[in-house]
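Let's see one such:

===
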Amino acid sequence: MKYLIVGLGNPGIEYQNTRHNVGFKTLDFFSKESNVSFNTAKLAERAVIKYKGRTLVLIKPSTFMNLSGKAVNYWMQKEKISIENTLVITDDLSLPFGKLRLKPKGGAGGHNGLKDIQQVLNTNEYARLRFGIGDEFSKGKQIDFVLGKWSEIEADELPKHTEKAINIIKAFSTVGLQKAMNLFN
């Protein structure tokens, strides 16, 4: 059985350690833990992980965040992966730093990457793992915060939160969305 695991972020070295790229960061940790590398492919960096009889196709779209839907749709079609077996990992300002929430569907919540995916797929009924980045910014400074680098404290704590995110991905692919939500939410 195949699963598409999408980490959202922006390509380019200048975005590498920003809060908005926590989806990329999570997949980087997962690939490193699994001893696999990402390769450049059409519309994305791609890696494949075999886990308990499942094939997990990890992608980090090479389009910018607000055009992520094109890459998600392409890889769903190319790999013949259903929307039920697709999980999108995204940053979330409305959750405290490190809080993880697995959801079966939902609105974009102002997130341009999710908006584009919803528009291209013509549905909001796909699983997403929302990774809390907090909301420690002054009024009018949201973009600077989201595109800002992790604080020293956040950077130190990030590995334990990404490890939990990896466990959620594994559960999603083995026990299913509902049971994974019961285990981790």
Residues 2-184 form a domain with the Rossmann fold fold (CATH 3.40.50.1470). The chain has a mean pLDDT of 95.
